[in-house]
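ok so I'm stuck.
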Amino acid sequence: MKPERHPPRWDIRINRELVHPQVLSLLEEHLAGMRAASPPECVFALDLNGLRRPDITFLTAWRLPADGCAHEEGELVAMGALKELAPTTATAGGHGELKSMRISARHLRQGAAQAILTELLRLARERGYARVSLEPAAHRRLTRRLRCTCSSGLWSAGRLGITVRVRLVGL
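replied:
not stuck anymore, here's the structure
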């Protein structure tokens, strides 16, 4: 009989300052990975200044300590951002874009990606966005993963009341 696995507990926060050493380290890992995997013209990753813009909401996901106390620092496991491309108006839903999604290499396949994505899409719905876009780099490995993810329904957010449009760049 397998022991029962409990999902990790995440503390997902809006981060406006982007000054924590763990956040800066994961952001550098993200930028280095994007630059290494893609031609320069296909790197759309935002740097620190880009993520601090007022049209960007940056989220971080932290693994809570074993006792579950959110007041302790914990360990950064993931990040992601939502960029407002068009605001919601009285006559039309807005448009957002998912940016800078990264899971720490040490925390892959533990549910952090799904947790941060779910929270980003919740924010989009809360803001009244009718559409959320994703613009990945042209790296073949990434686009293969994205196709697989799309076919599994992870990016299908119909049940959240918004449409996620995936545009594969450079294919």
